[in-house]
Amino acid sequence: MKTLENATVVANNPIRETIVSLWLRAPLIAARAQPGQFVHVRIAPPAFQPLLRRPLSIGRVHGETIELVWRIVGQGTEMLAHVRPGDSVDLLGPLGHPFSLDPPAEKSLLVGGGLGAPPIVFLHEYLKSLGHDSELMIGTRSRADLPLADDDPVLQESALAFELPGDGAHTGLVTDLLAERLSKLRDEGALAGTAVYACGPWGLVAALQRLLPRFNLLRAEVSLEQQMGCGVGVCQGCAVVAEGGPTPYRLTCSDGPVFDLFAVEVPGGL
Q1: What's the topology of domain 107-225?
Q2: Which of 45, 58, 89, 260 has its CA 20 to 30 A from that of 207?
Q3: pLDDT tens digits, residue range 215-259?
């Protein structure tokens, strides 16, 4: 069930040079939000520039507050980066299909690529609150691209992979860490009941589709990063090729953003 909510800014902090964390008091949305869902943000009411809302994944839910994390890339995200505590932000949400958790996995391996990490962090904290076994892996180009602050407790319990060497993390791709962990679980006979959940760019989706068939998993799901217009399935602008619907196409906003990993078709060339 989605709702329009006039949320109040609690804190708006830069995490990195162009990455921002915004905490909003939004009790109606917070009460219903599930990991993998998103909100559609109206940047500057009552003005109409920019015209369209911006879809942002729910990064965390703490009580009546939710966190949104994004990179400043244009006018809308730049404007949102300058709201102040006490300001109001118009939200539509929670939207989209969340991660599947029934039946619960014995072990969940969570993979976040770049700005795909926030919904995975939400899932990680949610699983831990239920007493479930969750391991978090985050891959970015460098520490400067991490969508978590250096003093964030979640960062301290995450396995990190940077494409550029340095900072004591694995040098390479986050899928290297995942492959190593899955291989170890298989060798120990502990792979049964394991689920993989991921969010990130299409390159990560393609890499996971190549890696995971060699492992017998309970489930493998991915939250897709896709541009959206309306966010509610009207404009058809976020269609992807995927199984499971009456046509070869499914909408990221309403059918997703979470899909079975092997149901989606990666665009050519990846």
Answers
A1: Rossmann fold (3.40.50)
A2: 58
A3: 999 999 999 988 777 777 788 888 899 998 788 999 888 898 999
